[in-house]
UniProtKB/TrEMBL annotation:
Keywords linked to the UniProt accession: Isomerase
Domain of life assignment: Bacteria
Species this protein is from: Allosphingosinicella ginsenosidimutans
Gene Ontology MF terms: isomerase activity
SUPFAM superfamilies per the UniProt record, alphabetical: Xylose isomerase-like (SSF51658)
InterPro entries: IolE/XylAMocC-like, Xyl_isomerase-like_sf, Xyl_isomerase-like_TIM-brl
Protein name as annotated: Sugar phosphate isomerase/epimerase
Acetylation is among the record's keywords: no
Domain Xylose isomerase-like TIM barrel: 22-237
Pfam entry (one): AP_endonuc_2
Protein's UniProt keywords contain Isomerase: yes
């Protein structure tokens, strides 16, 4: 049976969260990612989002994004976890922003302690243009947290660009992986230290599943069976081709379901 799929918030970056929820539902997704700016989310906004999810029969796969820095958690980051719990999001996506990796690890542990209290997993994503650059960095931080709320988020693009393969994912504890991101991409063409170029690629140059060169079938085999997939299709080409949010979400859903369905029949 194909993996459950969710529409990542980054597919529709120019639209409000309630438009994203509506578009995900109308396109046939069963779950959706939420872009949350805690300072702008009033209690009324939280209630409206929770009601929209319920009305459309959708779950929230994650809330993003928290950028971890050394020191005590800022109030907005603590509030992010609380909002995620209030709207029923299963995970909060976090990345490292501070070059002080021990400080980032401590901040991650603080987030996990709060996640345990709120019933939310804290999913750390590694990216070459962040301070948590590699899978090895992320493994050390997740393991060091020693928390049942600690999770590791795999993005096929970042996995490939950091020089890893599906076999490296297969070695991870399954309980660390409550969900994964999913997309395709062209062959790597940028230097590992070209942070500006890599960030632009991640935001604009992803491809629909099956239209790039990433080893997605092997990655699916390495991930836990039936793991939910957040379809992280950030693509300028898609944004230009489908300015309507429902049409864009539907294009992503069709391509992903076709790819996963073909694999299930193989």
């Amino acid at each position: 049976m194909p993996n459950p799929i969710a529409l990542a918030s980054g597919v529709l970056p120019e639209f409000d969260v309630e438009v994203t929820i509506d578009s995900a539902a109308r396109a046939g997704f069963g779950s959706v990612g939420l872009w949350i700016e805690p300072d702008k989310w009033t209690p009324r906004k939280v209630t409206a989002v929770r009601s929209a999810l319920r009305a459309h029969g959708l779950s929230a796969i994650d809330a993003e994004v928290v950028r971890l820095v050394a020191g005590p958690l800022p109030p907005a980051q603590r509030r992010m976890v609380e909002i995620a719990a209030e709207v029923g999001a299963a995970n909060v996506l976090v990345v490292g922003q501070d070059p002080d990796l021990p400080g980032v690890a401590d901040a991650f542990a603080q987030m996990c302690a709060l996640g345990e209290t709120c019933g939310v997993r804290i999913a750390l994503e590694f990216m070459l243009f962040s301070s948590v650059r590699t899978l090895d960095d992320a493994i050390a931080i997740v393991r060091g947290a020693g928390s049942p709320a600690a999770a590791l988020l795999i993005d096929p693009l970042h996995l490939d660009r950091a020089g890893y393969a599906p076999g490296d994912v297969a070695a991870l504890p399954g309980e660390w992986l409550p969900y994964a991101q999913f997309c395709d991409a062209p062959a790597a063409r940028l230097d590992r230290d070209d942070h500006v170029g890599l960030l632009a690629e991640a935001r604009d140059d992803r491809a629909l599943p099956g239209e790039g060169v990433l080893p997605l079938r092997a990655l699916l085999g390495a991930l836990p069976p039936d793991i939910p997939l957040s379809i992280e299709l950030r693509s300028k080409e898609l944004r230009d081709a489908f300015p309507d949010p429902v049409e864009r979400a539907a294009a992503v859903e069709r391509a992903t379901s076709r790819f996963l369905g073909a694999g299930a029949m193989a």
